[in-house]
Every structure is written in structure tokens, then in C-alpha cells.
Amino acid sequence: MATAKQKGSSSSSFETLPTGGKVFILVLIFALVGALYFFIFHMPLSEDLEAAQAQYVTLQTDLRAAEQRQQEYLQLTQELANREAIDRANKRVLPQDAEIPAFLQDLNRVAELSGLDIRLVEPRPEESEPLYVRIPVALRVSGKFHQVAKFFYSVSRLERAINMENIQLRDPTMNEADEVLLVVDALATTFRSAEVVTPGQPAQPVVPGRP
Hints:
alpha+beta; 2 domains
């Protein structure tokens, strides 16, 4: 009975409160509920959101750094490929070895394609220079003037550096077709590198007779 009376008195006391008091109590209740919601639900969510945003920023920074490293790697790879290509081209122009058989084969092939008769191919001793070694080969060929001109032009188009020196045209004769035949003596000089190349560092040789 006492409890019922107390409840009734509490309810009647709330009802008897003025409107301002009722509004204050309701505002207080909503404030308490809002505070509970903030501390129980909103604050952890805010912390998680901030952590997620910080992680996103970190991942974006790592991604940009990775993309930059990849770009640098691709650039270095391209530079290495270019250097290797230049190194291969330099070695074709100025090889590290004499490669006499290949050199003589090139001369014979060009002479035959030019229509010349090869009378003499005589390798001479090498001559050392500070940055390269000279490899002279004495040549004697015979043929018509335009064939000789074609031979010299074809030799100049070979990849390997070759100088034609001490050129002498002699013994002109007439063939049955009234064409002038010449005997040509020349010194075909090629070169090889005298430098010691450090691994990973392409050589930059000095090519005699070429700009």
C-alpha cells in the first residue's frame, strides 16, 4: 500500500510540476541519453574513423612512394639497356679482340661483291697506341675503276672501324672490252681496344678515323 502511494505521489508530483520544470527534466533526460549514446557508440566510432583515415593517409603515402620507386626502377632499367646497346655497338666498331679472321672475311666478301680480284691479303704486326691498337693488313686487288670505288665505299659502310691508307693505283691495262683495269695496293687498318673495361661500366672507346 505504501509503495502504491509513493508511486502515485511521484506521478502526481511530476504532474503538479510547472511546465518549465517538466521541460527541464525532459531536456535533462535527453541530455543523459545523448551523453550515454555519445560515450557508448559515437566516440568509439569516431576513434575508429580517425584511425581508418590515418591508415588511409599512410597507405596513400606508401603507394606514392612505391610508384616513385617503380618509376625510378624502370628508368634505371631503360638506362642500363641503353648503355648495354651502346656498349655492344662500340664493341662492333672497336672490339676488344683483334678478330682477324672476321676482319679478313669482311674484306674478302666486300671485294668479291665489288667484282675485284684479290691478289694479296697480308696481315702486318700490330702497332700499339695509348688508347687503341692498330691492326694493319696489306691488300692488293685488281679491277675496273668503278669497282675499286665501290669497294672503298663498301668498306666505309662496315660497322667495324677501318681506315684505307697508302692507296696506290698502278699498272693500268686494257681488257678485250676496251676497259681500263687497275692494280690497287692499299693498307687496310682496323683497330682493337687497348683499355681494360671494368664490369658494369661500358667502355667509351676512341675510334680512330671516325668523328
